[in-house]
Amino acid sequence: MRFRVIWPGKTRDTRLRSLVEDYGERLNHFVRVEIVELKEAGRADKPGIDKEAARISDALRPGGIAVILDVSGEEWTSQQLAEQVSGWEVRGIKEVSFVIGGPNGLSKELVARADRRWSLSRLTLTHEMARVLMFEQLYRAYTIINGLPYQK
User: Fold this and answer.
1) Are 102 and 127 in contact, with CB atoms under 8 Å apart?
2) Does the reported pTM lie above 0.90?
């Protein structure tokens, strides 16, 4: 299985980028991870959100599962996330794409297209912080699946 992580813009904060890279390297011990950074639309640019949605849609591959990070999505415990990941593996899913929107959010059409909507928290997070938390939780899920001591 492969995780494809799609987001507009680059992680500009070097400390957060370093954490994403660290958890990405850890995660690569369990699953292939590909990060797709797309061109970011301008802030408060309504046509821009549609352009970002088109770029994200183009980056999603047919036959995979699309998981949108959305504050209105399902909140999973770390154990529930581990069960989701394990279930995808058991079902033979080849690719799971995780999508984090930019500062303008995600278009309604893109959210409707998602197979799952996952909320990291009801709190408002910066997009860069959400990237770190998502990677950490995916790594944690694999430590749970494999019975490693990290999750304790």
Assistant:
1) yes
2) yes
DSSP structure class, residue 105: B
Handedness of CA 147, 79, 57, 39 (dihedral sign): negative
Instruction: State phi, psi for 4 to the nearest 5 degrees.
Output: -115, 120
Q: Which two tokens stand for residue 10?
A: 């680059």
CATH number of the domain that residue 109 is part of: 3.40.1280.10
Report yes or no: 33 and 2 within 8 Å, Cβ to Cβ: yes
pLDDT for 127-141, tens place per residue?
899 999 999 999 999
For 96, the domain range is 2-151
Task: Say if residues 3 and 138 touch (Cβ distance below 8 Å).
Answer: yes
Of 107, 138, 2, give the one whose Cα is nearest residue 64. 2
pLDDT single digits (tens) 80-108: 999 999 999 999 999 999 999 887 789 99
The DSSP secondary-structure symbol of 102 reads B
User: Total domain count for the chain?
Assistant: 1
Cα angle 98, 70, 93 (rounded to 5 degrees) comes to 30
